[in-house]
Design a protein that fits this description.
This protein has 72 residues and is mainly beta. The protein has one domain (8-61). Helices cover 0% and strands 40% of the residues. It is built from no helices and four strands. A four-stranded antiparallel β-sheet has the order 1-2-3-4, with no helix packed on it.
Length: 72
């Protein structure tokens, strides 16, 4: 996920055989450098004009994991 101000979060997901998707925050750029935590996705929000799926991700960052708040 890249924001307009250049900050970004990275995360990885995997799907269990039960269909449950588990995601972890693996890092970030700029003010999100050092980010750690979990992410929960809600992918069922339809599609955009090009047919790409839309979704929403909620990030739950581990307190104290951000190291880049002043390094943009």
């Amino acid at each position: 996920m890249i924001l307009n101000d250049g900050r970004a979060l990275t995360y990885e997901s995997y799907r269990l055989p039960s269909g449950v998707v588990l995601s972890s925050v693996t890092g970030g750029i700029g003010g999100f450098r050092g980010a750690a935590g979990e992410a929960r996705a809600n992918p069922g929000l339809g599609t955009n004009a090009t047919g790409c799926p839309n979704g929403r991700v909620t990030f739950m960052l581990q307190p104290g994991s951000l190291r880049g708040a002043s390094d943009n």
